[in-house]
């Protein structure tokens, strides 16, 4: 009976990176401390290769192994691990400016010049925005963030603002077959 009691009550502590949600307080995105945001890019500071690391503070009385493998009991105020979060590559193109240019000066092609498409901008300028139809289509495409900067970067959008996330279906996408009664 004593052997069973010892085996059931003594689980080896997890690595701090393997803690479950709720074992570190829900602060900011994905349970980590809120990242420090760069005012000029509206992305987390120290963003490299589309990844930034934020501090995660395990809850009080949580025992886990740190990155050195040392077992530690946390008080809720120490950094237990650094969690990677996704960030975007931005090069100075503002979403607000692009939408405003498209709305007010789209018929002159100013939006396309701003985003780095001079040939399309010149074509829109010479045809007065394709008689207004091209300006309307461009306004919709820019507003939906389908057309972006020509260098492949993302728009600067407020970090906690409304962003669109494009979902795609690939061969790796799980599809559940519909069953009929």
Automatic annotation (TrEMBL):
Subcellular location: Membrane
Topology in the lipid bilayer: Multi-pass membrane protein
Swiss-Prot/TrEMBL keywords: Glycoprotein, Membrane, Signal, Transmembrane, Transmembrane helix
Any one GO cellular component localisation term in the record: membrane
Keyword Glycoprotein: yes
TM2 domain ranges (all copies): 92-140
Keyword Transmembrane: yes
Stored Pfam families: TM2 (PF05154)
Superkingdom of source: Eukaryota
Transmembrane segments: none
Record PANTHER family: BETA-AMYLOID BINDING PROTEIN-RELATED (PTHR21016), TM2 DOMAIN-CONTAINING PROTEIN 1 (PTHR21016:SF1)
Family, per entry: Belongs to the TM2 family.
Protein name: TM2D1 protein
Organism: Falcunculus frontatus
